[in-house]
Specification:
two-stranded antiparallel sheet; 23% strand; 4 strands
Length: 87
């Protein structure tokens, strides 16, 4: 699990209006340094709640979609394997 260095989410204060979700805090120097070590144009993040403490945290969403070419080639491999079946 990779955390976003220099980026913090805080839950809204109990007296905040209903349209407020929370606060995002940025430690500029740390976030810039972290971003300079990344190559992606877009970095998706998830805001989660710690199971241990209940505190919110931000982690990098590292889910990678399967490419269309890859899934097509996997399907071709599957059909080739079934061509030898007798039924």
């Amino acid at each position: 699990m990779e955390f976003v260095n220099g980026l913090f989410f805080k839950e809204k204060h109990e007296n905040s209006p209903s349209f407020v979700l929370g606060k995002l805090s940025i430690k500029r120097k740390d976030l810039i340094e972290w971003l300079q070590n990344r190559q992606e144009d877009w970095i998706n993040c998830d805001i989660l709640t710690s199971k241990k403490t209940g505190n919110p945290f931000i982690k990098v969403d590292d889910y990678k979609k399967e490419s269309k070419q890859q899934s097509a080639s996997e399907q071709n491999n599957t059909t080739e394997d079934t061509d030898d079946l007798l039924f």
